[in-house]
Amino acid sequence: MLLDTASLYFRAYFGVPESVKAPDGTPVNAVRGLLDFIARLVQDHHPDDLVACMDFDWRPQWRVDLIPSYKAHRVAEEAPAGSADPDEEEIPDTLSPQVPVIEDVLDALGIARIGAAGYEADDVIGTLTAQAKGPVDIVTGDRDLFQLVDDRRGIRILYPLKGVGTLQITDEALLREKYGVDGPGYADLALLRGDPSDGLPGVPGIGEKTAAKLLDSYGDLAGIMAAADDPASKVTPAQRKRLLEARPYVAVAPKVVKVATDVPVPVADHTLPAEPADPERLEALAAQWGLGGALQRLLLTLGR
User: Fold this and answer.
1) DSSP state of 264
2) Please, what's the b/e burial string for 199-228 (b: 16 or more CB within 10 A of its CB; e: otherwise)?
3) What is the rounded CA–CA span in Å between residue 185 and residue 141?
4) Is 16 exposed, middle or buried (0-12, 13-18, 19+ CB in 10 A)?
5) Measured distance CA(281)–CA(284) in Å, rounded
6) Per residue in 141-150, pLDDT tens?
7) Residue 82 pLDDT
């Protein structure tokens, strides 16, 4: 089981009241919400391995170089020119202090926490999925990862509809029913349709339904562009014009939209821990941040 950790703690932050606070009055709603999410996921799905995948760079420069608008609207503060640090993401003031607490608690629990410099959590997930010897459940609220769905290998997306108690089990049948594509086809669909939340413009005038029809007719992005170049194809004049005008975007977008599968991830033990790696540290964190109930529920679940 691979967790898109930021996706889940954002969801926890907005789903758990900010009145949930540590003894010193600091909000810990995202921390406690995430711990409850993990407990529920382990209880319901019994993974052998569990990895909390992290965004070490939420807006990698190599993606921005290809499409400058990529996530540009979410930048709170740009990193100085020449700096190795990523731009600062716009995060609610009461969430950002909770992220280091989440990291400390996961480490003390012994839950593998993996990121890679210059890459997003999506890329870590893509790489670990590619390396996996058995089935993989990816837990994320980000539809971009639908591109990894692969029934043959047992790769599913568990997409939270309401918390993690109600999950959309996303397999190839569901993708075909909802979008008319398979996993790899979803990346082409997203590229053509665009995604305002990620600053991806898409091909103007090509919405989700049109993109799905084009993919059904011509197989993949390369097939669609070949058809646009072929005056004898059945691509409509309006679609042909839009696709050909968008050729510069279409040329670079696949590298931006498709998750990397060859990230240099560190070697780590992914085994779901039965007991905490550092009980004393965990006890101190529980006391400092008032995490008693949530941690006890998770520890009870891990120990079963």
Assistant:
1) -
2) bbebbeebebebbbebbeebeebeebbebb
3) 19
4) buried
5) 5
6) 999 999 999 9
7) 60
